[in-house]
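help with these tokens:
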Amino acid sequence: MIMSSIDNHTSHSVNTSNGWVIQAENLTKVYKMGEVEVHALNGLSLKIARGEIVAIMGPSGSGKSTLMNIIGCLDRPTSGEYILDGEPVAKLTDDQLATIRNRKVGFVFQSFNLLSRATALANVELPLRYSGVMVGRREKAKAALESVGLADRLNHRSNELSGGQQQRVAIARALVNDPAIILADEPTGNLDSKSGQEIMELLLNLNREHGTTLIIVTHAPDIAAHSQRIIRIRDGVAEEAL
């Protein structure tokens, strides 16, 4: 659990003057399991403003993970419209989804998802490699690591770093392409309370200093309390979306 000493710097009003970075309208998602159809999303609609901090909460089976996969361009809806940073993405091909995902979304996972034998610098360079960035790639990755306080760990392998340091590498990797949103899925779940508090402070600071749109998936009320808005998902719909 994260200590309540983190500054709750946010206000609970939503400023839409910079427009919507995420617009989802009547999203459905149907999975076929043999003869059975599972309706994971049932006409879900929501909007998230540019620069907003949003927490997404919901019980297991609520459709929360399916929604996250669609927001992160890891999957597409069965029907409905999804616009990410001005681009309609619901009907894109797999290759087009991969391109949008790399350019527009920075991921921070509970399990870090780093290459264990690669250095911190090499891990952060990966999104730049996928984007085809050739010039200044190392310098951008280095700057991202410096911004999360790891200037002295550039050449350490991931398996030589603590859990908190590995999550900092993951955050540097998420922000190196200057994405429209950072999608953090239980970002403190595998960390002790001190490391978890530091990671939350770092994520909130990205929003304060750079206006990064931050979407946090969490089961922890004390984490959600630092958002400007909580979207609760139940039975494939958003109960509190605006």
User: Anything to note?
Assistant: The helical segments are 64-71, 94-104, 120-130, 137-147, 163-175, 193-210, 221-224. The two ends are 27 Å apart (CA to CA).
